[in-house]
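The protein record passed on for reference:
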Amino acid sequence: MSSNEQYLQSIGQKGKVMSKEEMTFDSYYDKAMENPQLARNAVQRVYDMIMSYGTYEDEKGKVHYNFFRGRMFGAEKQIAQIMDYFKAASMGLDIKKRILFFLGPPGGGKSMFLSFIKKGLAEYSKNEKGAMYKIQGCPINEDPLHLIEDEDTRKEIWERFGVKIEGKLCPFCKHKLDYDWKNNISHVRVERFFVDEDSRNGIGTFAPAEENDMSELWGAPNLRRVEEIGNEADPRAYDFNGELHKANRGIMEFIEVLKADAAFLHILLTLAEEREFKTPRFPLQFVDECLIAHTNEGEFYRFIAVKENEAIVDRLYIVQMPYNMSYKNEEMIYHSALKTKLVVKGVKVHPGAVRLASIFAISTRYSTDNDKLRDGMQGISPRFILNALAISLVKTSSDTVTPLDMYKTLYDQVERYPVLDVDTRIKYLKILDELKETIEEFNKVSDSDIKLDKVINNRTKLFDRI
């Protein structure tokens, strides 16, 4: 093999798991009793994944999580709320029956936050602390310990080894246990599997659309197999490939979930409360999933205005994810982006230009009715500023985007931004004019004035989704 072939082969294999560990259920059982962490549920794994990066305390004694360090700026309050949820749910408290729900304006970091968690879980599943195993050939990555169906035996295992077995076999594995394995579980094959969003392994995603079909969530009959077997209720004639199946043992993401119709939301209710859902022709199916949903504020308020939706709202653990209200945190977003995805060779952005843009953005985000809870839930988004930075970088005729350049670009963008009503546009342009009056102060800002976080988490790209 030539050196080029070897190089290209290494590129293709980079980051991929090239072999899978296999064993009999006997061997897996011994392994799980020695290491109860193998039997953790999905929420416990997510919590342990984040904690595996460690924590640190600031000068005020407040705990921070290394997993989010250098990834999220100004979101300490939201991170604390999310970690409180994961910790309580992983302990088995009743909050585990709630859906973790991110609520905030577009560009507030909801999707990015979830993206980090999904990628973190995928990486965690590749190391020994995050190792996961399934029944070989199972389409939903079934927990092998579900082969132990007897409740008395499960209770004994809990008392002797501290291993808690919850849930039941999927219809596919139940059929194999009864007919192929003749209820002899000792020689059932078990294999390791790895969370991977691209291959729909341990990560499921659902986004409402005008013509959603229920099969997106719970699969559908395989017509060719139905014809062969002659029975639609036979698990061998069904494709267990819905998003709820593929998310088993990992994370199920619901995008703009409140736009879904009543039938989908009813499934979500049962899923949150019982960790089960109903598929036509089959009994209730158990799935172990960390349920995370997100939507924007407008959709949320339209939803809660309908009294019939109270039961669903009651099952949400809501975390507000507003825009930053500190220009120091806001400018960290843009300085980090200028090192990663906003790079133009030979052109730099003056730190005063970034500060001017950050202060402008913050100034637009205050609540109009003096409600502190509403601060950051409206106004100019980070995406708008990132767009303005990109335009400034390509329009400048010099090697530096100055504060005045930034002012001109922002003024032009606001003037032509069709989303704004007349009064809001006038208000934003007035803010910019006031900032222009102090342009010399922005010119004095130097690199040493920028409080940049030097500790960057190198296990993921910064701001790959915003």
